[in-house]
Amino acid sequence: MITAEKKKKNKFLPNFEKQSIYSLRYDEMQQWLIDHGQQKFRAKQIFEWLYQ
């Protein structure tokens, strides 16, 4: 259950918009993964999972 206090607290969080993984090109996904501490070969794995 969401309380009034939680609603108030969440009001101050940044408003992030989710991006579809399908909207990323291969090179963009590689860079995103590197920026988030992963190795770029993960992009190949993810693309294979998505488009198999």
UniProtKB/TrEMBL annotation:
Gene3D superfamilies for the chain: 1.10.150.530
One GO biological process term: methylation
GO MF entries: methyltransferase activity
UniProt entry keywords in alphabetical sequence: Methyltransferase, Transferase
Family matches, as InterPro entries: RlmN_N (IPR048641)
Residues of the Dual-specificity RNA methyltransferase RlmN N-terminal domain: 22-52
Protein name: 23S rRNA (Adenine(2503)-C(2))-methyltransferase RlmN
